Description:
single chain, alpha/beta, Rossmann fold, two-stranded parallel ribbon, globular
Amino acid sequence: MPTWLITGCSTGLGRALAQSALGRGHNAVVTARDASRLADIVENYPDTALACSLDVTEPAQIAAVLQQAERRFGSIDVLVNNAGYGYRAAVEEGEDADVQKLFATNLFGPIAMIKAVLPGMRARRAGAIVNISSIGARITPVGSGYYAAAKAAIEGLSGSLRGEVAPLGIKVMVVQPGAFRTDFAGRSLVESVTVIDDYAETAGKRRKANDTMDGTQIGDPARGADAIVTAVEADDSPALLLLGQDAFDWFLAVDDELRGQVEKWKELTVGTGFH
């Protein structure tokens, strides 16, 4: 049976994804910075679940988890880069140390995970890499510029990686969830200490004190997780999987708006060649 390695399983979509994969009979290496928070998952699936402590910004921990996973299950067939968190600030408000930490977790950590599993997948000429992004990478909401940038970066990398590894039998899929009822907008959301009054009516409206989304999101993590597993199991897995009616609607709205702008400026665009 395939073995999944999923990061960020303590809560939310990662936990639901672990339960969905295990429920369908897969093996799963479930990880979190504190593995004790995963004890109930292992209790329910003692033969097919392995819980490991993992901070994706720590190379030694990544190597240790790979060793434990291969010792227990033999190989990693599916990697899901789910670990991450949100950061809200106007671009000017973002503190350098916070931004660097955000990118370390949301971008460079997933890259390290990808590089760790690829040698085994290449040797077997099989595997799947799933990078959890966000519809925010597409709609770039005010106050979430750094988060959107980190997710857009992993999407750009995923596109290139897909072309590199497809001939080797390895799939790469990006997932863009909309708003799901997880801890993302609550406990897992960080914001800048710096507050600039001039952004009160834009980025300021999305600061935690003004955000009423937490606990009211329309997305069901269990159904979202099931959708991801179904897409990975498919022979024709999509390059991009949107999750949620909101994500679908926002994606098309942004696409239509950008297409309109591109068409409007077509004459200027195509007139830049030598004459």
